[in-house]
Amino acid sequence: MALHAELVRYLDWCPEERCLLHGDFGFSNALTKVDRLSGILDWGLSLYGDPVYDVARMNFWAEAMPAGHIDWLSAFTEYRHTHNLPPFENLSLRLHCYELYHGLWHARYCALTNQPRGIGWALHKAEAAAVALRAATRSL
């Protein structure tokens, strides 16, 4: 419950603006042709929200993926810079807030499906996001 209360405290850092999100983006939903992305599949979990939400989800799951950890935040930042797109305000805070959300959501899912090891892993990830949020907001 303490992590949920912490999540609620940080929601003010997340913007109200909304755009189309995939909701479940990852390598298994991407089609490529040579070295370019050519399509995105499986929009069954799509939603409207902050685009940082999708990046946070990919970052949250990165270490569990077969390709190993990818620094999605740096890739996202570099992409926006390369294409002359403005940086996102409070990007790191938003990312960690959504990672905290993903950790709590997955812990709940594991509890409902009787996966105790998954609960511990998800809560560990959620706590890491909360620690990052505390550190980032202390300097503000």
From TrEMBL:
Domain of life assignment: Bacteria
InterPro entries with a match to the protein in the record: Aminoglycoside_PTrfase, Kinase-like_dom_sf
Aminoglycoside phosphotransferase domain boundaries: 6-62
Matches recorded under Pfam families: APH (PF01636)
Name this polypeptide is given: Aminoglycoside phosphotransferase domain-containing protein
Species the sequence originates in: Dictyobacter formicarum
